[in-house]
Amino acid sequence: MWVPTEQEKYGVVLANFRGLVQHGLPLEIGDTVQILEKHEGWYRGFIAKNPNIKGIFPCNYIHLKNAHVKNKGQFETVIPIEDSVITEMTVTLRDWGTMWKQLFVRNEGDLFHRLWHVMNEILDLRQQVLVGHLTNDCMNNIKQHITARLDWGNEQLGLDLVPRKEFNLVDPDKISVTELYQLMEQRHRKKEIPVQASMHHLFVQVKSLMNANLGEEMEVFFFIYDCRENRPISERFLVRLNKQGVPHSLEKMESQCTLFIDLGSNDLRKDVFVVAHLIRIGRMVAGEKKNVCNTQYRRPYGCAVISIADLLTAESKDDHLLKVYSCNAESEWCQIHDNIIRKISSRYSPVGSNTGLAVTLQLLHGDLEQIHKDCMHLFTHSISITKRLGFSEIIMPGETRNDLYITLERGEFEKGGKSVARNVEISVHLVEADGEIPKNLIFAGTGDLGVDQHQSFVLYHSNSPRWAEQIKLPIPVDIFRGLHLRFEFRHCSTKEKGEKKLFGFSFIPLMQDGGCTLPDGMHELIVHKCEETANLQDTLRYLKLPFSKANLSGNNQAARSTKESFWITSFLCSTKLTQNGDMLNLLNWRTHPEKISDSLSKLKDLDGTEVVKFLQDTLDALFGIMDQSSQRNGLKVFDDLVHVINLLHDTKFHHFKLVMDNYIENHFAGALSYRDLIKFMKWYVSRIIDAEHHEQIQQVLKASEYVFKYIVQSRQLYAVATCGQSEEEFRCSIYELFKSVHLFLSHESKGVNPITHTQAVFLRSFPTVCCELLKIFTVEEVAVLARDTIGSLPNMAHTDCPLQTVKLQCIAKTVESPLYTNTESRCVLLPVVLHHLEVHMQGQRDLGMCAHILTKMLSNINVDDMERVASEEVNMIMESISGVLLRTILQVSSYPQTPRTAMRLQYQDVTVRDSEPFSRKNTFFHDDCPETVMCFGFFFFKGEFVACLLTLLRQLNDKDYQQLLTRLPSKDELTNFLLQLFTIFQILIRPDMFPRDWTVMRLVTNNVIITTLLYLSDTLRKNFLNEQFDFKVWESYFYLSIVFINQPCLQLETFPPSKRKKVLEKYGDMRVMIGCEIFSIWQSLDEHKLNFIPGMIGPFLEVTLVPQPDLRNVMIPIFHDMLECEQRRSGNFKQVEAKLIDKLDSLMSDGKGDETYKELFNSIIPLFGPYPSLLKKIERETWRESGASLIATVTRLMERLLDYRDCMKIGEADGKKMGCTANLLNFYKTELNKEEMYIRYIHKLYDLHFKAQNYTEAAYTLLLYDELLEWTERPLREFLTYPMQSEWQRKECLHLTIIHNFDRGKCWENCIILCRELANQYEAYFDYRNLSKMRMMEASLYEKIINQQRLEPEFFRIGFYGKKFPFFLRNKEFVCRGNDYERLEAFQQRMLSEFPHAIAMQHANMPDQTIHQAEAQYLQIYTVSPVPDRQDVLQRDGVPNNIKSFYKVNHIWRFRYDRPFHKGSKDKENEFKSLWVERTTLTLAQSLPGISRWFEVEKRELVEISPLENASEVIENKNLELRTLIAQCQTRQMQNINPLTMCLNGVIDAAVNGGLARYQEAFFAKDYIANHPEDGDKINRLRDLMFEQAHILEFGLTVHEKFVPQDMRPLHKKLVDQFHVMRTSLGLQPQEFPALVRASPMHFMSGTPRNCSTPVPNAISPDSTRMVMRRSPLSYPAVNRYSSSSLSSQASNEVSNITGQSESSDEVFNMQPSPSTSSLSSNHSSSAHVNSSAPSSNRASPLPSDKHKHSRDNLCLSPRDRLCSSIYPIPVDTPIRVIPLQIPESVLPQSEQNVPSLEKGIRTLSINMKPLSPIPSARSPQKTPIPPLTPSPIDGLPTGGLVLNSPVRSGSYSSGISSLSRCSVSETCSVEPPPADSPVPPPVPASLEDPMVRRGSKTPPPYSVYERNNPRRATPLPHSLSVPPSADSSGLPAKPQLNRSIRLHSEPRQRTVPRKVSQL
């Protein structure tokens, strides 16, 4: 039996469990489980990350952990009992694990590997914490590392910022909002603005000296040199290099690495350098012979420098190669580094071309101790420390230094009888008075060992050497007295012995007689004569001699010469010794009492460093003097004490405050000093008002903090000694002192004067004075004292006074002090603090400080402590500053933000109009403050104000709210308060209110907002309903609620599971709460609901789009109420519908909404909860039909919008995007009639086409917008990217853009029509310049048509089957226009790549319903042939092929697909007897090309063609092909005769081998004729065609013989012989040829057919005049692309074309339309229709060479290219009456020379145009074509348009350029229509009939071309696109409206009626 567990509640999975048992729960290692029940070794529970799935699992798979259970029972929550850092680490690593894998998927390798490394580090640290054997310090250190890495990872992954105190997470419910904000802000600022370090350090490591090849050892001295001050600022670091140029003792890091410490921020300049001096150790002269001298000397070698500034940008250690330079003259060695820095190249030169010093340099920042922790790898071994010369910028107490630095500057020596100058070497000795030498106290540099004597380097042959060599002597203090330095001078000979001969010495004592050390600076020393070292043994002897020329007597004989001198520089850096005598006199005041007064006076002149070194001794001396001689020296002592105290305010000595505090607490013994200190303090304070100079007074008040510390400590010592005597006297003296203070503080001055500054000085130190007084006074007494002091300050009327800011700073410090944390004292101080805050906030002054004070005040109120006192404090604060706080937040929020953070409210803002903007004189900012800093400052204290408001609202209960609202007696005040509060709440919800990762802060804010709204709901119902209804309040409330629901931080669906669970457990789903409140409020509005219709439809719709089922169920019924209210008010809900549709498009485009939401509107079955769907509610109403229609429309729109959103995602194929956009565009036009949305999507589709380089489709798309415009001067507003311009200008710009796109798409026939329309407009306005350019452009287009080749695209039928396709494709079939050179396999592959989950169907049969309803995607693709409508052009002889090829593949409505099959039994001997053809004709909704590359199939027609008809068709097609080739050969259009040769060979060879014989056998047999008497005419027709083919072949052979080259004569002879055999088989004789067939197939090779109605006989048969007129049973057999031919095949043509040879008869396709195995067929002859869309199709993608093969293809035409002759015209279904048109000659285009290109025409034409849109649209011109009597490229096109028989003018069914003229036929054609009683003109010939009649049997759809003859109402463009006419239309008159009848007939006509856009 399962038993609920008590202790076993939480565990971790130890191993994977597959859960194969019944009710088993699969587990993975590492999962955490919550245990519910237990039974016999099994647990029942769930995984923490998926609590909805429960199951059982074994106990031994679980490691139990201690846990705490909250809310025991069904909804219990289990929290593991462990360190919060461990818990956070575990949860965070789980979240990171999922995101880490996604990084790998997204190929973010760098972050992937870094995160992996950090995760491993955290796991290692976690193990150390779990072990639990660490000290507290180690544990804290590890936790710090863990939290730092967690924060880094969260930041990198874009996760939330976690608030922490120390290392533990903070519960937002247990601290105030102000504290939470401060924690978040501190962590954010630490992340965004790293703390600037004040101390810097330089790490140096020497690698080697590169390419020196010197062969001598080397010393390298590094130091830091300040070029500005021309002095080194650091000690020297020494590295010794061996003869190979690498450091000695590589194992000792300290010998090659150092750390230059204590560099200040001022040292990181460009003029501060790292200098390296190289000294070689070897012979005197480099390269000297070895046997000359064996003595080693230190000689200068070279120098290298690098700027410190070059190291600032390096993030880590960087290797440098420093170039080494040598000095040209050794006498200038001391200045070589300076010369290199200043680039005085004449004084130095490179040592070698490649010689360099390899070093590693790295700048480190921060405290040295922290650097030890952060850069432990640098300190793994001991590393030398190189100190700064002198003290650092900050002197730390306890620091001990006693370093003496001696610099050997220069010397002046005589030759001493030498012919050349000396080589002087100095030996430096540190000697005691008795001659003893201390061991190892001389250092040439850090990194080296100390020595007893130091030898300088030698400058060659110089009597005035300048060394500038520094040494360091760290002398202990206890032996400093009595030491002296001795300098021995020796001449270094270069002779063979190399001896060093002593010739003199100098010395200098280190301590003076008075006890002071050797003063800093340069000293000129006497050079004493000495040639024997023994003379220097007796130190007492030479110490009696003078050492410096400053104290040299005139007759001293010991000096060698007054001309010889030696200069040194000394510098002492000591914390124990002083060089100042005045300081010694003060410290020894008891020894010399007569010097007390003088010493006190000179104390202020001493260097601060000297004072703080002896701080305790100095203080003892001062208080000792005060106790002994108070009357005489008391005031001086007080002034000196003030001076010493103020010294500690300097940042350099700031840390010595600890020393003084320690002195006061432990060493100060002046029990009576408080009396003198109070007396002198009061004396200074009482003189403030009357004093002329306030400098000393201000110094006294500045030191008041420590003065009071001494007073308090002295009083406590006295009280202890006397058991509290004189207590009252002390209190009185303090009160008297503060009365004087209050007196001078209450003094009000005009402007800024010394008194004001003095008041400010005291206020800065007053809070600390109060803290000191707490030691001897009660809290209440000090609080009263502080209240009176603050209250004594005057309220300044002017804001220039700095006292205002200082006063607030004083209040802020008081609030932060312990005085305010006490409840009793806080009650005393709170009123005065609130008073000053209100005054400043009311005046908008010092808002930053006010926010800081208010934050500190509220932080002292405990969240859990809601007792009476805390509640009273909150109410007092709300009563005092609630109003001004709201106004301040609104004012601060109105400050303009930077573009990065600026964001308007989503809905309206209710602002306070009477609030003034911030004063520029606000002391928080300055005029020179950058804008970014100001914005950051405003953001900072705006956030503090907001946090304060949230804290106050969070601590108010229902009673407090009622009390707050009762203080607003009038309704206006209550309204203003609520509007302000709601507006602030809207501001708080803004995304830019808090940084993106402050989710915790946002959730707390939302919790406060929703709590406040729930509290205020009763007040709203009580005060603002019924007759008190206030629209503004309710509108603001609704907008606030809607913005609240839609904010990103509440969209829990986007959160990770762990984060979503935490939010739900802590706050619940706040969206549902506020949604329920909205519904409740809405129900209570009753008749006032009408005020929010239709305004609130969009916002409420946005709420319902949130994917939260409960929220949707609550909000959907509101729409029913809106529809019902609108129906009652106006009888319909058109407004609701319009608003709903407009808003739905924008919202769903933004990514909102889903399939479930669509079902809520459409489905009758309730999806969630008790609420029915909207449609079900509507069906209960009387207006259910119109309501259901609305819901159906909205549902269909959502289907299309969802498809559009899915297709527009990144990575989707362009074809899918275009098709979906076109589908949505059509829906807006045809079903919704939304013109503006229709135009927007036109441009979206245009952009897609243009980007994909579908220029023809782009032009057709833009033409839709052009058709909406008229040639009028109506002004149009700015729209999309169009500027404000007239309608004429926009239409002109659109025309030019469309022409440009048609030109790039090689659709030049359409360009010509648009050019003509533009030319007519220019001509009407007499704009002849543009007219001429347009005519030249038109001429260039004709040239392109004739001269340039155009590829004919393939067409493919594609079916999309299955429910997985988007709605606009699902279970539909389309015909697609392929790309250039694209064949079936390439197209199929492209479709499969666009739909990667689709399955290609391997057959061409129509799929059944199983496929239609399948949850999959099926594609069915095969090739179809176009069926052109322009038969008149294609069948007319003399029309160039370039023109015909255009009409073959343009303006195509119908497409054909043939499938051969055998009906009945198949005759094995002659399969033609049973070979039938199933012909499928597909009719499209729009013609191709159009606004899309594919259009849906509107109609399917299936026809079966008998074998006899098929045979006739095949022969007729071949005859037409032969005629065309023969004509081309005759007219020399062929460059070679190969195509004709191959065609003749294929036909004749096939006929000889049984081709025509098979037909004779099949259809001319008596049995067949007897069994099929109805086919008599067809048989006769077949016979005539066969005869005709024979005669054509004979004529073709004649032509072939004329042009055949000599090498092909044998082939021609063979063809002639085979033709005779063929003719004999047919039983024909030459004389039996009819006259027609002996004539040329091409009758108009030199003329035009327009001048003759009958063909002209050819010269071959001059007597023949009879024409045999035959009619093909096919409407257009010539364009059956893949119909089988009896004489050739496309494959054979292609092969022959490439090889130049004819194929054998076995491989030539012989009259066989099916892929049968007959001997008359071949594999090459298989029609593409027969093969399915499987990849195994014989049709392949074109080879690269095929792209250049179109010229050959035109010479050897395939079956799809065969043309119909005008001999056999194809009549159309119904004749049409055409009005004759007479065009004056002036109208006809004239030929011109040098016709410019189209691009040039457009460019030149646009020069004189006004500024137009960068993305124009287009419209078709209203142009009447010339009657089809000329071979014009626009013959036969419908009146005023470019597309034939388009069922619509624009929108969903418009496939091309269709005229949308509002004019009648007479207006568009410049011809008046015939009157009603006029005779009907006779019908024109079939070849001239308008193809419009082809679709005449169909009912014209809306907006079809048939409406062009009907007048339309005048309706303007959408309001957003047009500009309302001005009342005063002064200016130039409008351009005249184009009227072609005026030009043609000079008859007046009325102005064209503006068209109505809605009719398009």
Report on this structure.
- The chain has 1960 residues and is α+β, with helices and mostly antiparallel strands.
- 39% of the residues are buried.
- Helix 31 packs parallel to helix 33 (1109-1130), helix 32 (1097-1104) packs across helix 34 and helix 49 (1538-1552) packs across helix 55.
- Strands 1, 2, 3, 4, 5 and 6 form a six-stranded antiparallel sheet that branches. The protein has a six-stranded antiparallel beta barrel with strand order 34-35-40-39-38-37.
Beta-strand segment tally: 40
Our count of helices gives: 59
Q: Which consecutive residue ranges, at least 5 long each, have pLDDT under 50?
A: 898-938, 1163-1171, 1631-1960
Tell me the overall shape.
extended
Helix content: 40-55%
Radius of gyration: 52 Å
Question: Biggest sheet, in brief?
Answer: 6 strands, antiparallel
Distance between the termini: 77 Å
Return the structural class. alpha+beta
**Mean pLDDT metric:** 76
- The fraction of residues in strands falls at 5-15%
Compose a concise summary of this entry.
By secondary structure, the chain is an alpha+beta fold. The chain is built from 59 helices and 40 strands.
Tag the structure with descriptive keywords.
single chain, 1960 residues, alpha+beta, 6-stranded antiparallel β-sheet, 6-stranded antiparallel β-barrel, 41% helix, extended, disordered C terminus
Per-chain topology:
Layout: E1 3-4, E2 10-13, E3 32-39, E4 42-47, E5 50-58, E6 62-64, E7 67-70, E8 77-80, H1 84-105, H2 109-131, H3 136-156, E9 164-165, E10 168-169, H4 177-192, E11 199-210, E12 217-226, E13 231-232, E14 237-241, E15 257-264, E16 272-282, E17 297-307, E18 318-323, E19 325-327, H5 336-341, E20 348-350, E21 356-365, H6 368-374, E22 384-386, E23 402-412, E24 424-431, E25 453-455, E26 466-474, E27 484-492, E28 500-509, E29 521-526, E30 528-529, H7 539-543, E31 565-574, H8 581-587, H9 596-602, H10 608-613, H11 615-628, H12 630-647, H13 657-666, H14 673-686, H15 695-702, H16 704-722, H17 727-745, H18 754-773, H19 779-791, H20 803-816, H21 818-821, H22 823-842, H23 847-859, H24 868-893, H25 931-954, H26 958-966, H27 971-989, H28 999-1023, H29 1031-1046, H30 1057-1067, H31 1070-1085, H32 1097-1104, H33 1109-1130, H34 1134-1149, H35 1155-1162, H36 1174-1178, H37 1184-1207, H38 1214-1232, H39 1235-1251, H40 1255-1266, E32 1275-1276, E33 1285-1286, H41 1287-1304, H42 1308-1324, H43 1328-1347, E34 1355-1361, E35 1372-1377, H44 1384-1394, E36 1399-1400, ...
Parallel strand pairs: 15-22, 36-37
Antiparallel strand pairs: 1-3, 2-3, 2-6, 3-4, 4-5, 7-8, 9-10, 11-15, 11-21, 12-13, 12-14, 12-16, 16-17, 18-21, 19-20, 23-26, 23-31, 24-25, 24-27, 27-28, 28-30, 29-31, 32-33, 34-35, 34-37, 35-40, 37-38, 38-39, 39-40
Helix pairs in contact: 1-2, 1-3, 2-3, 4-25, 8-9, 11-12, 12-15, 14-16, 14-17, 15-18, 16-18, 18-20, 19-22, 20-23, 22-24, 23-25, 24-25, 24-27, 27-28, 27-29, 28-31, 29-31, 29-32, 31-33, 32-33, 32-34, 34-37, 35-37, 37-38, 38-39, 39-40, 40-41, 41-42, 42-43, 43-57, 48-49, 48-52, 49-52, 49-53, 49-55, ...
